[in-house]
Design a protein that fits this description.
This protein is mainly α. Helices cover 79% and strands 0% of the residues. α2 packs parallel to α6 and α14 packs antiparallel against α15.
Length: 407
């Protein structure tokens, strides 16, 4: 089994795919952090920031069943490039959000950006096993799992700092330029991003392709367990809506909001790095997934009892250390057991369930954010995740080794 450093230094195409993902994830933070600070300032309400987060995750989730079929049917490299270019147009639309009357344009732009991301995500995740060898896959997942968190640190912290120093519109220009760079880097990847297809067989219709993937998932309890693993963290994810308000409570403003998102990213970086022993011992996967869910939920429940901002940052870090571990463990197991012809659709279903749970959580929080105490919302979100983790582990206790399951 290859080491992470050996894969990074020895596989040119993996480096470029990883670099493109890092740039895309960083650009996302240069949009979201300034925007969730800008909208409450323009409108005088925290609801707009919550709606932006909910639209982002909700539209993403609703599109994934359809975009997952694209990742199994068409050239994944072209999908990634087209998604980046579409995202550039969506980000530039945010430059028109200048008054309370134009706040609705932010929702339209973020919805468009979410469609682009829904095309990008399953194609990128399904492509990873094709640009690395089977021996390199666990190590590649350590880096891929840390990519989002790495750029959450860089993008969220810089997004908060530059939004405070230069204003949100400069951040939107930077995000657009970064997305163009990601498209250029993706163009330079040489390895095919999917296995050869039998061109003599007609491609199934979209609904037929979706039904085939759902039947595959439903007929394999191990795969079903994996595609429901991320929902635990998702159902507690409404806490992210509270970050600007939480920063306001402690008087740390936009910089504090950026720091909260940044330590969230730091935890998501370190979490995958700590999963390597679990990736090497497949019988630990289900227990590791349940533990990661519980760490997330207990950390946020604890934040509701804290009054010192540095300790809040530490607990957010710990929560997303668990969340990042949860993400990489479930991704690795799915990449190992799902055949290439179905991988885009299975990952789309996995992402759909995760993002739908996030969207539901954020919408519920948005509906009570102006009426309930912040600490009550934090405690509730954390305890929801802990309850899910307990129920999920009880339901999966007899499944055994997931990655050893037959395809």
């Amino acid at each position: 089994m290859s080491s992470p450093l050996a894969v990074l230094t020895g596989n040119r195409d993996f480096r470029r795919l990883l670099l493109a993902e890092l740039v895309v994830f960083g650009a996302d933070w240069f949009v979201m952090v300034p925007l969730v600070v800008l909208l409450p300032e323009l409108t005088g309400s925290g609801v707009w920031g919550a709606l932006v987060l909910a639209v982002d995750t909700g539209i993403h989730a609703l599109m994934l069943p359809f975009t997952g079929t694209l990742a199994d049917r068409f050239d994944r490299r072209r999908i990634l490039i087209a998604a980046n270019l579409a995202a550039v147009v969506a980000v530039l639309l945010l430059l028109a959000v200048r008054t309370p009357g134009t706040a609705w344009l932010a929702l339209f732009a973020i919805a468009s950006l979410a469609v682009a991301k829904s095309c990008y995500s399953p194609a990128a995740q399904a492509a990873l096993p094709n640009v690395v060898s089977a021996a390199e896959l666990p190590a590649a997942n350590v880096f891929a799992g840390s990519a989002w968190g790495t750029m959450a640190i860089v993008g969220a912290s810089l997004g908060g700092l530059l939004s405070a120093a230069l204003g949100p519109y400069a951040c939107f220009w930077i995000a657009a330029a970064a997305l163009l760079l990601a498209a250029v880097v993706t163009m330079s990847i040489r390895r095919p991003m999917q296995a050869p297809r039998d061109v003599t067989l007609p491609a199934p219709r979209t609904l037929t392709a979706i039904r085939e993937a759902l039947a595959y998932i439903g007929g394999r309890p191990q795969v079903l367990a994996l595609v429901t693993a991320k929902s635990a963290v998702g159902l507690g994810n409404g806490v992210l809506t509270l970050f600007p308000l939480l920063a306001g409570v402690y008087g740390v403003g936009a910089i504090g909001t950026g720091l909260l998102f940044a330590v969230r990213g730091a935890g998501a970086v370190i979490g995958p790095l700590l999963t390597r022993p679990v990736l090497n011992r497949r019988s630990w996967l289900l227990t590791g997934l349940a533990a990661s869910m519980s760490v997330y939920g207990l950390s946020y429940a604890s934040i509701s009892l804290v009054t010192w901002f540095p300790l809040v940052l530490a607990l957010v870090f710990l929560a997303h250390l668990g969340g990042g571990s949860n993400w990489v463990l479930s991704n690795y197991a799915l990449q190992a057991v799902v055949p290439d012809r179905l991988r885009g659709r299975v990952f789309a279903t996995d992402l759909m369930l995760a993002t739908l749970s996030i969207s539901v959580s954020q919408l519920i929080v948005a509906s009570v954010i102006d009426t309930l105490d912040t600490r009550i919302i934090l405690a509730t979100c954390g305890l929801v995740t802990v309850t899910y983790a307990i129920g999920w582990r009880l339901a999966t206790r007899r499944l055994g080794s997931v990655v050893a399951a037959s395809r």
